[in-house]
Design a protein that fits this description.
Length: 79
Amino acid sequence: MQRVSLFDAKTHLSRLIDQIVTGAESEIVISRNGKPVARMLPIQADVSQRIGVAKGEFEVPDDIDAHNAEVAALFLGRR
């Protein structure tokens, strides 16, 4: 864990982020007037799978786009 002052964090933000991204540091504590006020941590990768979660659950009808003009007219306030 690295500890830096608020001034140094503002001055060297890119370098500090690179240290977090590369894994050189797992946590950086930012201090103001000698007291810790914030922590910089890497964002954990999202491991949830969202795309394709309903694959095979339903069929898309061939005429799915048949009413696009009507729906657009409703959204645009036309009849």
